[in-house]
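As a next step, the fold was encoded as tokens, giving this record:
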Amino acid sequence: MSSSRFVQAGLMIALFVSAGCGSEADEEAPEVGRRTVEIVFTDVTEESGLGRFQHETGAFGEKWFPETMGAGGGFLDYDSDGILDVLLVSGGFFSPGEQVSPPALQLYKGVGDGTFSEVTQESGLAGLKAYAFGVSVADYDNDTDADIFVTALYENFLLRNDGGVFSEVSAEAGLGGYREWSAAGVFMDANLDGWLDLYVGNYVDWTPEK
């Protein structure tokens, strides 16, 4: 064997030995600075005042597609008092009859001690009826109030907030007349002009006949 090949073989053997030693050393090295943190969640729905909310699916035996879908919700500070409030989304009834569909949205004001009180009626949201799925919150008109966009089956709604009271302004904002099943909406300033734009994502083309 030439001297150069002998040197190459020796280097390869040394490399394998050092790699093996390094691996063993790594396995035996003590763990430094690693801690195990236990995260525990506690159900406080009833104590917080949110236990009365119940999502209405409208199921009446026909097993229609929208009945299987969940709805959304979110936190917002609707009255600008620095305390987060909770907005929950409900569905409605499909079958004809005397059932009265619940409001599409139910708003719970944060008291500040971890509890909430319902203010759906006082905030002007009790009259909104729709089979709703999601909400997006943003100050679309730049007046410092948190406004709401609701995605629903066949009709979406833009709710303008004026000092803690909401009014439905979809038509005047150019958002009326759409007959889609919308799942979600996102506010963004797409063209960087200082005014929020709205992107709406639709789901499937569904009717009871299909």
